[in-house]
Design goal:
By secondary structure, this protein is mostly helical. It has one domain. The chain has 4 helices and 2 strands, in the order H-H-E-H-E-H. It has a two-stranded antiparallel ribbon. Helix 2 runs antiparallel to helix 3 and helix 2 runs antiparallel to helix 4. It is elongated, with a radius of gyration of 18 Å. Structural component of flagellum, the bacterial motility apparatus. Part of the rod structure of flagellar basal body. One of its GO terms (cellular component) is bacterial-type flagellum basal body, rod. It comes from Hydrogenophaga borbori. One of its GO terms (biological process) is bacterial-type flagellum-dependent swarming motility.
Length: about 120
Amino acid sequence: MAIHFGQVIGGHAQALQLRGQRAEIIAANLANVNTPGYQARDFDFSARYDAALAARDDGLALDLDSGDLQYRVPHHPSGDHNTVELGVEQAAFAQNATGFQASLTFLQMKLKGLAQAIQGQ
């Protein structure tokens, strides 16, 4: 009997990959909090994840020059035209990290259950 790991792990692998990419984008925003004219960017995780699942897309690399990334609209515009807001970015980073940890935990539980089934426990 063949094991199809794609069916076993569900969309957690895609979620981890997308969350890793989102962490890089948010970290770049945070690194440029004091750069005049820097435009904060992000992407809609839910929409990208749903699209990847619908297309059964394993190559989830975002094209940074296409429409995958959107510019964040600031709540309080700054005088130097920098749209990075420290609190907003920190909250987005924390939320993304929590989602990453949840997906990783689910993936670990799935693989642990699979290992136990293979061992006959």
